[in-house]
Write a structure and sequence with these properties.
A 4-stranded mixed sheet has the order 2-1-3-4, covered by helices on one side. Strands 5-6 form a two-stranded antiparallel ribbon. It has 148 residues and is of the alpha/beta class. Strand 3, helix 3 and strand 4 form a beta-alpha-beta unit.
């Protein structure tokens, strides 16, 4: 279940809540996980406003965005990696109203080792996540997200 962190100078994104929702939805879609509450409620983005002057490249430019996506190990094959970087860059540039931001957006893909992250007080393995997802899918009624 991905966690997405976006770092940008304050004021870069006028509607941070919508940006967070759009990024989370994009990663969930690209990952191709079932559309069930377990994934919808635990795929999230966090927007971090940085004060002016708190970031810089070598030339002194500070109009960059960094997006870090943390997934469980093996969640993104090469095609999904390419899609996540492309889509999140596009979403950020659109949210900022600045098409040129795409060339100044860094996307970092990070994997947590199996059992190397926790939710609800438990360090989860990939096998445990699969089992939990299957159990939730089996419990959903038709018409519910993921329930057919």
């Amino acid at each position: 279940m991905p966690m997405i962190d976006v770092y940008a100078t304050s004021g870069t994104f006028p509607d941070q809540h919508q940006l967070a929702a759009d990024l989370a939805a994009a990663v969930m879609t690209i990952e191709q996980v079932p559309d069930i509450p377990m994934f919808r409620q635990n795929t999230a983005a966090f927007i971090h406003d940085l004060p002016a002057g708190s970031l810089s490249n070598v030339d002194g430019d500070s109009n960059y965005v960094r997006i870090q996506v943390l997934t469980n190990s093996g969640a993104l094959d090469r095609g999904k990696q390419l899609a996540v970087v492309e889509q999140l860059t596009k979403i950020a540039a659109e949210a900022a109203g600045d098409p040129a931001l795409a060339s100044r957006t860094w996307v970092l893909l990070t994997e947590a080792p199996d059992g190397g992250w926790g939710l609800n007080g438990h360090a989860n393995t990939n096998d445990e996540l699969v089992a939990a997802a299957r159990a939730q899918l089996a419990s959903l009624q038709p018409g519910q997200p993921g329930g057919g």
